[in-house]
Amino acid sequence: MLLRVTPPSEPARGTPDRGAVDVGGLRLSYLDHGGPGRPLLALHGHFGEARTFAPLAARLAPAWRVVALDQRGHGLSDRPPGAPPEADFSRRAYVADAAGLLHHLGLEDAVVLGHSLGGVNAYQLAARHPGLVRALVVEDVGAEIEDDLSFCLEWPERMPTRADLLAGLGDSARHVADSVREFADGWGLPFRAADMVASQRQLNGDHWADWRAGTCPALLVRGARSPVLSAEHARRMAERRPGTRLVELDTGHAVHATAPTEFAAAVRTFLAAL
Does the N-terminal or the C-terminal CB of the chain have fewer CB atoms within 10 Å? Predict the structure, then answer.
């Protein structure tokens, strides 16, 4: 049971509305930043959650209404039943979750923005449900993926204080500190480490067919110091998918978090041209 949530460091206009939708028997939580603008669905990466996009929502308002999903097994959303590797973190399931939220809110023809895991989910949603996606923003993820998150299995699950948890996380604390929460049995993170490992394994693979299948305009944002998406791979992605613009920013993998002003400016420029 969740007791307390640390607020985002840079909230959007007021407090976003927290909503939920049932998709395939899972209760999925989302944040709706509201406003009169056009819809933009934001999908976070592994270890993330919807509120990571609060600073971006503030910068895009009021022209864009940002709705951010806590993807399955993350944040306040349910995890799929079963122990890994039986738990369903498949490509089909993630895409169905995003499509289900858009249908629930009546938001067709939305821009879909995704970071890392969320970026693959975004371009697969565009490929498999083209009527739902007006344009794509894909942040620092490729069309061929081979990664391993098993290092997170060493992270402590619960600690008596926030300081103890951050100390136990070591160097990884800087990447997940904003997600730290207090639960009934101590301080921890809003996901299961084994789920993240299973989800990554089901993300790995060759996704060129989905990347190239989409026909809507796309912005591919790469962190110039990212170990995840190489310059050469990003160049090939832009060349092989018509209507794709490539932007590189001087940051690492989490571009939206480490260069929020520059990232928002690149996104705004792209959206203005739609």
Answer: N
32: domain CATH number is 3.40.50.1820
Number of domains in the chain: 1
Q: Domain containing 102: what range?
A: 10-139+206-272
Q: Is 200 a domain residue?
A: no
Lowest mean pLDDT among 96-100, 150-154, 173-177: 173-177
Handedness of CA 75, 81, 84, 90 (dihedral sign): negative
Strand 244-249 to 218-223 pairing: parallel
Q: How confident is the model at residue 168 (pLDDT cuts 50, 70, 90)?
A: very high
| pTM for the predicted model, two decimal places | 0.93
> Is there a domain that residue 126 lies in?
yes
What is residue 7's predicted lDDT score, i.e. its pLDDT? 36
CA–CA distance, 73 with 213 (Å, rounded to integer): 28
Q: Write the pLDDT tens digit of every residue in 215-253.
A: 999 999 999 999 999 999 999 999 999 999 999 999 999
Q: Does 249 fall in a domain? A: yes
Residue 5 phi, psi (nearest 5): -120, 125
CA-to-CA separations, 174 to 40, 51, 163, 229, in angstroms, rounded: 27, 16, 13, 20
Per-residue pLDDT, 99 = 98
Taking alpha carbons only, the member of 6, 50, 51, 1 closest to residue 166 is: 6
Peptide bond into 62 cis (omega under 30): yes
Q: pLDDT tens for residues 6-28? A: 333 343 357 899 999 999 999 99
